[in-house]
């Protein structure tokens, strides 16, 4: 049976929540934006940020800065703000060494998601990256998982796992695609119908490593 694992990015492999707040605060401070702009950004982009959000921002507050400049500033700042624990990075390396095929499967804009992956070094520790904006399919749609398998060059999803923090997008979406699932709960309880529940991505990796006898 093939060893196949898909990982969500935001708030699974990297801490987007804290990084997002720090990024927006710095972004507004550097550009001299008032508190109402910061509050608008925190609300509008809480779950996901796209270039079009900055078109709306410029319209809402009659800003003179070009959308491209605002988006690039935010994208660079967000990539710098997110972190991935060293234990997770080394765990991904262990999984690959043990014969697992790994892909990041994430919703979001391609440029910002890839900037996070490059900045943290995750992109050098997985075999493929599948970003919703780039493939035109979003989790929890089954198609994004099958597209990730195609990018990996593997034969279907049999024996695969989906690891993520979203009960709907990662767990329900993964289950619908025929994947087994690991919910990264962040300590939020056991109410999600996943095959396994863990507190963080490091625990998920340990679980997967244990499945093929790498760890006891």
From TrEMBL:
InterPro entries: HAD-like_hydrolase, HAD-like_sf, HAD-SF_hydro_IA, HAD_2, HAD_sf. Coiled coil: none annotated. Keywords: Hydrolase, Magnesium. It comes from the Bacteria. Pfam families: HAD_2. Its cofactor is Mg(2+). SUPFAM superfamilies: HAD-like. Gene3D superfamilies: 1.10.150.520, HAD superfamily/HAD-like. This is Hydrolase of the HAD superfamily. It comes from Kitasatospora saccharophila.
